[in-house]
Design a protein that fits this description.
The protein is α/β, with parallel strands linked by helices and 681 residues long. Helices cover 39% and strands 18% of the residues. The chain has 21 helices and 28 strands. Strands 1, 2, 3, 4, 10, 14 and 15 form a seven-stranded parallel sheet that branches. Helix 10 links the parallel strand 14 and strand 15. The longest helix has 30 residues. The relative contact order is 0.08. About 2% of the residues have low confidence. The chain binds 5'-O-[(L-methionyl)-sulphamoyl]adenosine. 5'-O-[(L-methionyl)-sulphamoyl]adenosine binds next to strand 2, helix 1, helix 7 and strand 14.
Length: 681
């Protein structure tokens, strides 16, 4: 019997369309599922949409649709997006499906049966964030003037004034959960998130309101309220149950064979923002119902886009993963390799669990260095060499050249391949794709060095009898790499295996006794029919940038626009010559006065000493970041030869250098006192 492996993604709210943050969780889960399928594990992969709740009801109202119309319109977009992005063999669950509704209803009844005191009627008074669909105490919120705000959504929370509600006795579960976490350290991963939840549990839990009466878009509570109120089940109780309901038979029974078989192996891959729901509420509901707990809650960090939170108010941060994959499809093999490049960047760039900042510079850097150079060159060089010399020196293993020893490059290459297969598998099993890729790329590096070291072209010239063996080592290395990259770069793997003539099922290359090359099937080697990842030059980079974010507000400027508003990481600002730079007169200035300008919230009027006869009058858009008094006496860097211009009715005779564009994050600084007027170069 093969081991069950069950991976789930968060189910996505249908008030939105998929962006990079959603795609990340789905692609990572897909990579794990692919890896486990390759290992022969009995793999299940679940994603879907979260379709009930106040947020969806409100969004539908704004669009003049019924909630059902809205969810029927948006849910398929997620499914289509995952199909377009070649996410493989997943089940797609919708919380509006009849089976799911039945399972949630059954869960309620099961809690009633197993732990009757866990659900009770009372009235809820307190704060609610519709964005999070979550209840908050004031200590969990921030105050902006008189308004309480949600820290995640940065928007006002609403006050629920004594709404009648069913409560779940969450307080009862702090101790049992702590005990479970202690006994199962793998329950919450990575470690930092476990610690966060442990300290949350140690501070005690309050009972949780699990029904609402002030709106209707949800699964009805399946029992009467003596006061005649109609309750719908709290959307998180409904949504979390998806992980179980997909495993249930059509009648919604909680005791089916699949639930028993798979659920205890479940790994819930989630964003860190929804950790508490998964690591506290969900297991508490399951304990209360007498059902088994999932194996792990695996939290990922958050992606920002060029330093900004992904948000609706900044369209340029809402990177569309399909547009990005299309734009990266620069080679002759089209979209599938564009998808692979995107997957590679996201999974390699940050260790799972850490926050990441998506930058085009980082993406292009990884593309060029790791994909075009390391992998692409290895593939091209190897296949070209094999195609060229194979007729006279067929690539076959010849043990006389493969003796053990650190001096023997053939033996060394296979030992490293064998080791890599093992450690990369270990890292995928440990749910650490970034590390898996790092180790895999070390082997790619060695295979490239092997070519430099053995110089097959020189061996051919000198008719070296070891050439066939050297080519076989290369071919086998490519084959091993093609298999190992498959979880993260499935299309690249497929293309490469095609060139090697391997059309069999893509399983993980299991080495035996230090040998892994011996497993390669009878391989052939077609010369590559084009570069898989052509190097991205500057015009191509600019084109990708334009295709992905175009001129969305907040987008990095196109190359021809002035450089002053460019993001630090934007690579597409046109290069300048030293002569261009020398035209700028940058000087150290000392702020001698700063005052607010009436009716201009963003501007301050400064007088800055540049060592000239009279201080410069400078209007600076920094009022939101600096109080005038705080600036007096500080040193700044001034563009001193900027043509004067009138702003807010005042003359501005220069510009202060500052970091940030929409929001000022800091002023340029010097590390020691420098006389005003000193030139900066
Ligand atoms: N519907 C709930 C989840 C219910 S699971 C039982 C929800 N949906 S969501 O659409 O708002 O977000 C789903 C997930 O998308 C987040 O938890 C997170 O995993 C992922 N991300 C959304 N934005 C993200 C980033 N910027 N970065 C990384 N992932 C983020 O929450």
């Amino acid at each position: 019997m093969s081991t069950p492996f069950y991976i789930t993604t968060p189910i996505y709210y249908v008030n939105d369309v998929p962006h990079l943050g959603h795609a990340y969780a789905t692609m990572v889960a897909d990579a794990f599922a692919r890896f486990h399928r390759m290992r022969g594990d009995d793999t299940r992969f679940l994603t879907g949409t979260d379709e009930h709740g106040q947020k969806v009801e409100e969004t539908a109202k704004k669009r003049n649709l019924t909630p059902q119309q809205l969810v029927d319109e948006v849910a398929p977009r997620f499914d289509e997006a995952w199909k377009t992005l070649d996410i493989a063999d997943y089940n797609f669950i919708r919380t509006t499906s009849e089976k799911h509704k039945q399972v949630v209803t059954n869960l309620w009844h099961r809690i009633r049966r197993e732990s009757p005191e866990d659900l009770y009627l009372a009235s809820y008074q307190g704060w609610y964030c519709v964005g999070c669909e979550a209840f908050y105490t004031e200590s969990q919120l921030v105050k902006d003037g008189e308004t309480w705000m949600c820290t995640t959504h940065k928007r006002p929370v609403e006050f629920i004034d004594k709404e009648r509600s069913w409560f779940f006795k969450l307080s009862k579960y702090a101790e049992p959960l702590l005990a479970h976490i202690k006994a199962h350290p793998e329950f919450i991963r990575p470690d930092a998130y476990r610690k966060e939840i442990v300290s949350f549990l140690e501070s005690g839990l309050r009972d949780l309101s699990v029904s609402r009466t002030s709106f209707a878009w949800g699964i009805p509570v399946p029992e009467a309220d003596p006061d005649g109120m109609k309750h719908v089940i709290y959307v998180w109780m409904d949504a979390l149950t998806n992980y179980y309901s997909d495993l249930c038979p059509p009648d919604g029974s909680l005791d089916g064979a699949d639930a028993k078989n798979y659920f205890p192996h479940a790994i819930h891959l989630i964003g860190k923002d929804i950790l508490r729901f998964h690591a506290v509420y969900w297991p508490a509901f399951l304990l209360s119902a007498g059902l088994p707990l999932p194996k792990s809650i695996l939290a990922t960090g958050w992606w920002t886009v060029r330093g900004e939170k992904i948000s609706k108010s900044m369209p340029a941060t809402r990177i569309d993963p399909i547009k990005l994959a299309q734009a990266l499809a620069v080679g002759p093999f089209g979209m599938p390799l564009g998808i692979d490049a995107m997957r590679y960047y996201l999974m390699r760039e940050v260790p799972l669990g850490n926050d990441g900042d998506f930058t085009f510079e980082g993406l292009f850097g990884r593309f060029n260095a790791d994909l075009a150079n390391d992998l692409g060159n290895l593939v091209n060089r190897s296949l070209t060499l094999i195609a060229k010399f194979a007729a006279d020196h067929p690539p076959v293993r010849d043990d006389q050249f493969h003796s053990d020893g650190h001096e023997n490059p053939y033996w060394q290459l296979e030992v490293h391949a064998f080791e890599t297969v093992r450690v990369v598998a270990r890292e995928f099993e440990a749910l650490a794709p970034s590390r898996a890729l790092e180790l895999l790329w070390r082997f790619i590096g060695q295979a490239n060095r092997f070519i430099d070291q053995t110089q097959p072209w020189a061996m051919a010239r000198s008719k070296d009898p070891a050439l066939g063996h050297a080519l076989w080592c290369l071919q086998s290395s490519l084959w091993t790499i093609a298999r190992m990259i498959a979880p993260v770069l499935p299309a690249t793997s497929h293309t490469l295996l095609g060139w090697l003539g391997d059309t069999g099922p893509v399983t993980w290359p299991e080495g035996v006794d230090g040998r892994v090359f011996t497993q390669a099937p009878q391989l052939t080697a077609q010369p590559p029919s084009g570069a898989m990842f052509p190097r991205l030059d500057e015009p191509m980079q600019a084109k990708i940038l334009a295709a992905v974010i175009g001129d969305e507000p907040g987008a990095a400027p196109a190359p021809a626009k002035p450089a002053e508003s460019a993001k630090p990481a934007a690579p597409a600002v046109a290069q300048i010559t030293f002569d261009d730079f020398a035209k700028l007169e940058l000087r150290v200035g000392k702020v001698i006065s700063a005052v607010a300008i009436p009716k201009k919230d963003k501007l301050l009027h400064l007088h800055v000493d540049l060592g000239e006869a009279k201080p410069r009058s400078i209007i600076a858009g920094i009022a939101e970041a600096y109080k005038p008094d705080a600036l007096v006496g500080s040193q700044v860097i001034v563009v001193a030869n900027l043509a004067p211009r009138k702003m807010a009715g005042l003359m501005s005779e220069g510009m202060i250098l500052a970091a940030g564009d929409e929001a000022i994050l800091g002023l340029s600084a010097l590390d020691r006192d420098v006389p005003p007027g000193t030139r900066v170069r």
